[in-house]
Write a structure and sequence with these properties.
The structure is a single chain. This protein is mainly β. The chain contains three helices and 28 strands. The longest helix has 24 residues, at 396-419. The relative contact order is 0.08.
Length: 421
């Protein structure tokens, strides 16, 4: 290599006569050919084959996070929906605007894709079509919109779709849409014609949520009047209302392969119905939350719930257990939660004008037995993610280690209890 050779040549040209003054040698006796060589105490020349830009200041490698960064919005988002096959989310806010973002665990890689301001009043719900190509939205302006999900362009608008502000939305299939309004009216739409094929008012208050069975035959609605409604789409008729509950029913989902129906309530209780036993609840489970505003099924037995107290909880059904805390918007009511297409993340929107992401990848592998674990001394829920009790919690690592230790102690306690039977 050039640098070592040059260094050796400099040493071999030294002569035997008495050593002159070092300064004089430097000025008078140095070989001209070696005048450009570096002093011995400096690093040798770099490899000529090396990239000349390699030693220059390189930008640091992007940081990979456990979850995507928070997305800060200009207004409170009432609703959030995640794409069925890509890392894209859409949210609708109280100003009537809809925003689409791509999200990534690489720091700084969240990107706004487009925005739409077609609604004149607050956007209440947004939903992707099953193929992710269309986006549907409903609003307080009583309109139903269908947009191109890739570009955010308005494709279809149904003005005055309801006589009251629209509050809820469900895609039954690629052509059939169900909507519920603040007055308790349910409508079912054939989007190919842009006309309703069902228009029924059975609730006395707003329709908060809508669900459909796997056969696409029965629609279930929850309402602020405390009842669950049952509607037959095929026969286009109303079937029955459940008995009244003590609070508003805020959300509905099907669990246990469609054999159970779970409803959230404003009083923090989950009401459970048997399929074909819609008249009365078969079970109820108070999760000690201020409310259960919305429910997102994660597996056939586990749901995540969002509350007015800002907490997002993971709840197991049968046996009924609060598994722990997924995350929280500190002191801010959570409007809606939605899981990602690969069940890695849960996205949440709240009054702090943030979209937050939570790691739920461990939930599908969670098993729950009948044994009731003792409660924590400080009354704190178990953390199910690193950010569960605040992203900037200095003691988060300590809490995680302590919980692991407590879990071991509880397992040992469980073994000792079972051995004493």
């Amino acid at each position: 290599m050039a640098a070592p050779t040059e260094h050796v040549e400099t040493e071999s040209t030294e002569t035997d006569p008495p050593e002159p003054d070092k300064t004089e040698e430097t000025e008078t006796t140095r070989d001209p050919e070696s005048s450009d060589s570096e002093p011995a105490d400096q690093d040798p020349d770099p490899d000529p084959d090396a990239d000349p830009d390699e030693d220059e200041d390189e930008p640091p490698e992007p940081k990979i996070r456990d979850t995507p960064e928070d997305i800060r919005l200009e207004a409170i988002a009432n609703t959030v929906a995640l794409h069925p096959s890509r890392d894209i989310l859409v949210c609708g806010d109280v100003d009537g605007d809809i925003y689409a973002y791509s999200y990534s665990c690489t720091e700084g890689e969240n990107r706004e894709l487009w925005s739409s301001g077609h609604h004149m009043k607050s956007c209440r719900q947004v939903r992707f079509s099953e193929d992710g190509l269309k986006l549907y939205s409903v609003s307080r302006d009583k309109a139903v919109h269908m947009l191109d999900a890739e570009r955010g362009q308005l494709v279809t608008r149904i003005r005055g779709a309801h006589g009251a502000p629209i509050n809820s939305l469900l895609l039954v299939d690629e052509n059939i849409l169900a909507t519920g309004d603040d007055g308790g009216t349910l409508k079912v739409w054939d989007m190919r014609k842009g006309t309703d094929i069902m228009d029924l008012k059975q609730h006395e208050d707003y329709i908060s949520d809508i669900a459909v069975d796997q056969a696409k035959r029965i629609l279930l609605t929850t309402s602020g009047d405390g009842t669950m409604g049952v509607f037959n789409i095929k026969r286009r008729r109303f079937e029955l209302l459940s008995e009244y509950q003590s609070g508003d029913l805020t959300s509905v989902a099907l669990m246990k392969r469609g054999k159970k129906v779970v409803c959230g309530s404003s009083e923090g209780t989950i009401y459970i119905f048997n399929w074909n036993g819609f008249g009365a609840t078969s079970d109820r489970f108070a999760i000690k939350a201020e409310s259960v505003e919305c429910i997102a099924p994660i597996t056939d037995s586990i749901v995540c719930t969002a509350s007015m107290d800002g907490y997002i909880r993971a709840v197991n059904l049968f046996p009924n257990r609060v598994l722990g805390c997924i995350g929280q918007h500190v002191g801010e009511p959570v409007e809606e939660i939605a899981k990602s297409w690969d069940t890695r993340f849960l996205a949440s929107s709240a009054h702090d004008q943030l979209i937050k992401f939570w790691d739920i990848s461990s939930l599908p592998g969670t098993t729950v037995n009948e044994y009731r674990k003792r409660k924590k001394k400080d009354g704190r829920m178990k953390s199910l993610s690193k950010k569960a009790h605040g992203e900037n919690d200095f003691f988060s690592g300590l809490v995680e280690e302590t919980e692991k230790k407590e879990d071991v102690e509880e397992e040992e306690e469980e073994d000792s209890d079972s051995g004493s039977d």
